[in-house]
Design goal:
binds zinc ion; 158 residues; five-stranded mixed sheet; 3 helices; Muramoyl-pentapeptide Carboxypeptidase, domain 2; alpha+beta
């Protein structure tokens, strides 16, 4: 059974934002709810500023599940697993969003988050809920900036 695009995943996030193809089922829906909780926490930390998921930045179902294709995504993408969101916050730079997420991670407030990528050029931040490594490490990366992995911090590349 499909869910309605207008269904709420959390107080501020709807199905259509994180599952635009309306293709998530079962466990994937649970993952999207968990992801929405992460986005709620980030939204609150940013003073309640709306967090927008980019057009192709939500769940991207495997090709055999839907008609539309997402050729740019690898099969291993966390977006394919209903674990990732690419987000934009109006009035806040990608660098500041990433560093807010990084600070929350350091403070132990985003235990579900396992990956963060900061895309300064494209102006968005990727956040995902992949399991962390046994050592508690996150997958961290940067485009157009530099990441300090140990500190979970990004800065403009010099
Ligand atoms: Zn992404």
């Amino acid at each position: 059974m499909s869910w309605s695009p207008e269904d709420a995943l959390s107080p501020h996030f709807r199905v259509r934002e994180l599952d635009p193809e309306n293709a998530a089922e079962g466990e994937e829906r649970e993952r999207l709810r968990e992801l929405a909780q992460v986005l709620e926490a980030i939204r609150a930390e940013l003073g309640g500023r709306p967090v927008a998921v980019t057009r192709s930045g939500g769940y991207q179902p495997p090709d055999d599940k839907q008609s539309r294709r997402w050729p740019s995504r690898k099969p291993t993408s966390q977006h394919r697993r209903a674990r990732a969101a690419d987000i934009v916050v109006r009035g806040v730079s990608a660098l500041d969003v990433a560093n807010t997420v990084g600070r929350m991670v350091r403070e132990g407030r985003l235990e579900q988050v396992g990956g963060v990528g900061c895309y300064v050029g494209d102006g968005f931040v990727h956040v995902d809920t992949r399991p962390r490594t046994k050592g508690g490490r996150l997958a961290l990366w940067a485009q157009g900036c530099k990441v300090h992995r140990r500190e979970v911090r990004w800065e403009v590349a010099s």
